[in-house]
Amino acid sequence: MTIKLRDGETVRGWIEYFDDGMLRLTREGQPNLFIYKHQIRTISEAGRRAARPARVQRAPVQPANGEDA
Fold this sequence. Notes:
The chain is an all-beta fold. It contains no helices and six strands. Helices cover about 0% and strands about 40% of the residues.
């Protein structure tokens, strides 16, 4: 997640915990942050896009009892 704060700073990590007033942002190789929600301007997904569902190949439908489709 990318979190832009009201003071213009941007921090990245993943949200490990949140409640009514704050969230915990866990970061790799840097200290974890507790951020009050009133300090947040925007939250957006970072880096990866949501995976598209795999396309399912369907077998042709065979008519029952030798009837024409």
